[in-house]
Amino acid sequence: MAISENYPLFIGGDWIDKKEKFDVINPATEEVIVQVPNAGPEEMKQAIEAAVRVQPEWADTVASERARILADAAKLMRERIEKLAEIMTIEEGKPLAESRGEIGYAASFLEWFAEEAKRIYGDTIPSNSKDKRILVIKRPVGVTAAITPWNFPAAMITRKIAPAFAAGCTMIVKPSELTPLSALEIAKIFEEVGLPKGVLSIVAGTEPAALTRVLMDDVRVRKISFTGSTPVGKLLMKQAADTMKRVSFELGGHAPFIVFQDADLDEAVSHAVLAKMRGMGEACVAANRFYVQEEVLESFTEKLASRLQAMKVGNGLQEGVSVGPLIEPAAVQKVEDHVQDAVAKGAKLVLGGERSGQNKGYYYPPTLLTNVNEDMKVTFEETFGPVAAILPFSTEEEVIQKANNTRYGLAAYFFTRDVGRLFRLADRLEYGILGANDGLPSTAQAPFGGIKESGLGREGSKYGIEEYLDIKYISIGGISR
Ligand code: NAD
């Protein structure tokens, strides 16, 4: 399905076309959906200039006006949910119901930060001198930039622009070149609700390293917020050092999903399906390693297999489909490699493991592996696909050690009805997000983010806005005469 609409770039509040274009591909059909102007360093420079120009005025806009813009944008986004969901499914592949869910999730960040914009409070601090008062104020960081991935093409953008705008920062977004359309739809929404020109730019192009280099080298860009893979995050962190930019990184993960024998097994299985299969497993918080206590290993495996087997694979636009295509051929190859590696090292294939019969589209079926051990890639590299790998364990101590044995620290899930154990695990699991009897913990009011090599900083919640605020204090003298 091709899209008839034009998608120029959004730079400094203007829609910019360019002769040189790149194809946006539908992963379900391998067809070109539309062509988008291919931005280069010149367009990125224009976006920075526009942001620099409008930044002082935007920083001084009253909070209620910034809140109004965010709230109106959320409303428009919800009104357009059907159109936006369809565009997302066509460019990213996830089933339509999930795309609708993501649009709602994306709008919820705009709503949350519309409220937070009004609550940027300061402090007064007792001074050590009778003659002085100390006042703490918070001011926007200034011009900021967001570099975002393809797997949540709308929510990963609003999770950044909402706190940035709430705080009074401008933002240049470089979306993934695989999913620029959702980003450009967000720009249309903000233009319609009256966001001043230059506060937002969307600069998409096929040379991400060259585009982001312009941002990283410019001393006037005061912060970057990156969501993507850990290797690229590390690269950007090094580049940020030269101008000492503030940084936020939401990086990769390798989530353990732990099922104790005292868990409600049916609940655990339902949540396992959510934590594993949302977005075909292409989520940073996707469950990668299923640790199941020996007593319930067999029944958990059987129940999960039957749930996965019932999932319909196909084009996400079709009714009843719950597993769409992966994003690109390289993603399918990586999943295939992980499964073949596991099988070669002794894993048992309970379900799936073979590419589906479709002629077109980057499909891979739900796959379940048992007899898995820690030498297999599935247990230490992000699979980013619909593969569940099950490993047995016997004691709480053993599973905590195994679950923590990774450089990642984004999300962990555990299922138990023992309250003492729940808190012991919450204390000891080295992860920023803990789903205790919950396979879907993400929400706008909670602080999303990782520890270890999964990142720095938090998004959403009352903490999210702090990433876009500088703290200053005023020491006021001459008080007591
Ligand atoms: P990616 O790192 O390849 O790309 C992310 C962004 O960085 C894209 O905009 C891309 O164009 C850009 N980029 C790529 N190479 C670059 C370079 N050399 N210099 C500068 N920019 C570059 O990641 P992806 O494949 O788009 O997304 C998948 C990854 O994102 C996974 O590792 C996943 O776990 C992670 N992710 C994390 C979160 C989170 O909140 N922690 C959320 C979603 C995805």
Number of helical segments with 4 or more residues? 14
State the major sheet: 7 strands, mixed
Q: In percent terms, what proportion of residues is strand?
A: 15-25%
How many angstroms does the end-to-end distance come to? 77 Å
Structural class: alpha/beta
Number of strands: 20
The small molecules bound here are: nicotinamide-adenine-dinucleotide
Identify low-pLDDT runs: none
Strand order of the largest sheet: 14-15-16-13-12-17-18
CATH-defined fold name of the largest domain: Aldehyde Dehydrogenase, Chain A, domain 1
**What share of the residues lie within helices?**
25-40%
- CATH superfamily placement of the largest domain: Aldehyde Dehydrogenase, Chain A, domain 1
Mean pLDDT: 97
Whole-number tally of structural domains:
2
Q: Radius of gyration over alpha carbons?
A: 23 Å
For the record, the CATH class of the largest domain is: Alpha Beta
Based on the structure given, which CATH architecture of the largest domain is correct?
3-Layer(aba) Sandwich
Shape: globular
